[in-house]
Amino acid sequence: MFRNQYDQDMLTWSPQGRLHQVEYAMEAVKQGSTVVACGNKKCAVLAALKRKQSKLSSMQEKIFAINTRVGVAVSGLSTDGAKLVKLLREESTREEFVYGRSACPGRLAAAASKSLQISMRKSSGRPCGVGLVLVGSSEQLGCQIFQTCPSGEVHQMSCTAIGGRSQSARTYLEKNMEALETASVDEMIMIALRALNESNVDASDLTSDKCEVAIVELNTYTLKSAAEVTTLLTNL
Amino acid sequence: MIPRRVAHNPIIGPGVVPRGVDAEYDAACARDDARDGPATTTHAPASGRAFTLDGKAREKAPTTRTQTPYVTGTSALGLKYGDGVLLACDTLACYGSTKRYKNVERVKKVNERCAIAFTGELSDFTYVCNLLEELTTEDFCEDDGMTRDAEEIYQYLTRVMYNRRNKFDPLWNSLVVAGLKTNGETFLGTVGMIGTHYEDDHVCAGFGNHIARPIFREFYKADMTEEQAVEVMRSALYACVMRDKQMMNKFQICKVTKDGVTISEPFAVPTEWGYEKFYNPTKFSETGW
Amino acid sequence: MAPEGARQHANWSPYDNNGGTVLAVAGENYVICASDTRMSTGYSILTRNYEKVDQMSPKTLMASAGFMADAQTLKKTLKARCKQYEFQNKKPIGCVSFAQMLSNTLYYRRFFPYYAFNIVAGLDAEGKGAVFTYDAVGSYERTNYSCQGSGQALIMPVLDNQLKTVSPLVLPAVSSATPLSEAAAIELIKDCFATAAERDIYTGDRVELWIMNADGVRKEEMPLRLD
Lengths: 236, 289, 227
Known about the structure:
- The complex is a heterotrimer of chains A (about 240), B (about 290) and C (about 230).
- Helices cover about 30% and strands about 25% of the residues of chain B.
- Chain B has helices at about 25-35, 55-60, 120-140, 150-165, 210-220, 225-245, 275-280, and strands at about 5, 15-20, 50, 70-75, 75-80, 85-90, 95, 100, 105-110, 115-120, 175-180, 185-190, 195-200, 200-205, 250-255, 260-265.
- In chain B, the strands form three sheets. In chain B, strands 4, 7, 8, 9, 10, 11, 12 and 13 form an eight-stranded antiparallel beta sheet that branches.
- Chain B starts with a strand and ends in a 10-residue tail after the last helix.
- By secondary structure, chain C is of the alpha+beta class.
- Chain C has a single domain (about 20-220), classed as 4-Layer Sandwich (Glutamine Phosphoribosylpyrophosphate, subunit 1, domain 1), CATH 3.60.20.
- In chain C, strand 3 and strand 4 form a beta hairpin.
- The termini of chain C are far apart.
């Protein structure tokens, strides 16, 4: 049943210098459905596959607005994700109250990182089994993409994909890295959707109720409606 | 032996309780004197008896807040022009009506695109500067390339001043915040002691609101050049130094543009005192001395 | 220790009155919220450009006169709570709910009140204009027109005269919204502000009107006396 004797809690290092509990949490991220993000300074796109718990249930939510400039997609344990989304929203509201300006994505990612790191350090808890892809813009630094990991690590990315079967999306993005630099919003959406399509190994094609798309341009964040997503998908 | 007395107001501390304040005490002293002869030691002057400080009472006493400022700066002026903002104030910090510190820099550079100036309590301003320093350090430590622009500093200070007012422990300052917003526009705003704040093309904190502001209203033009703006500012400073007794004829002008913050060397505005009637003002006055 | 009352400096007060007049009129399918843009303290004008009306949600406008630091903080707090509401309920807050929330927020500070005189204007669930008028500690009532702030005493009687309609208690029920057309109401409001600016030193500089109807929100402005 156990992989080894060093994975019973988060306080025990393996002799190889690994924390197995945290690595298991990273596996939980891979259980989630795919999230793709790509962008440049001027725009960024967040796209995610949605899943149903069962045929009878409604579609899960994947992409959450944090403020008028930042959105986040979660992959992994969705309740852990909900906790982090709440934390980010509160942090953002606080920043806005004090500085009169939407919090910039980098600071929000740092806040998420701090929370993740704390939950990883306590013997009483467990690491959050969720990965976040945070996409947003600020006046000073333009559009940015950040990716978090259960260990609390945060990386700024030019493009990324997390979640189950995300490797094929990543491969697609790696091949199209050069195109990202100069891509317009519409081109960027197409790159994101094609990357997402690579990870869609279901019998059926992508449909508007199977995926969500959010777009960040300078100082705006918009979640595309189902109808808009349908039109976008026809151009795929 | 009469027990040692404490003051009526125990917070005041050691001192002398004069005779005639407390009949019971006077009677006790009289009895004491009748027995031992009049007190001769210097410790107990004939006019009263020393009392001591009641340390416990001081602990129990209500916390008191700043009721009055001590070392103060007077007006701070701010003026926008074509592609920058000017801040101006003198270099004087008064102790009441004493011109106490004549070389105080009353403007502070916050970062490359923001500077603030103050009126009111000097030490409270130092505290505000420390807060801003912390903010800058925090940004530096995050290391994500983000810095606060003038508007964010202004909003932050608004919260600081208002929160202290809510605690009935105000920072005794009005602040003028000048600089650039992230989008490159100029910014000029002021925050008062109780959190009152506004942005405008020209602002004055302190007494200058009565003296310099009308001059700004008269001569302000949105597309002024720097030279013109400095000219307007100098005439406003001149009016202030002539009419505000707490103002000194030694000023600094701070300029914020996209090239950064520069604080000028102290300078004086020319004043003319050589009028004939000033030499002997009472010469033609029949009732003069 | 200096005797009481012998202080050299002005005594400190946590409050100030920055003046200003706010007004709102509700029609059958529109609502107008207006304010002047002067901010004063004592006999000084601090700025001629302080806008007292804010949009709090797609269907809600709020205007406050009184002590500006309190009014601004109140608005900031409410905006944060509106955002929280939107996240929790996945829809923006309606004006009737907002009105209740404002009352609660004001009463929460019953013993250190926000010195702000508020009016909430919006379109209710049926799209009818609604105006809510408050005192500083949260008592409020839904009406179809109201005026608060320094020019209240000058404007309110005029509104009573021009806009008073059937009591909501009369049966059979008759709409109590003002019968004025939107254009006529705009003119009336502009006249009210021009009138108040003649006699009230705390009202002046500019009046801004926010007009909300089914099409959305638009703004109109008119200059007032600058003295």
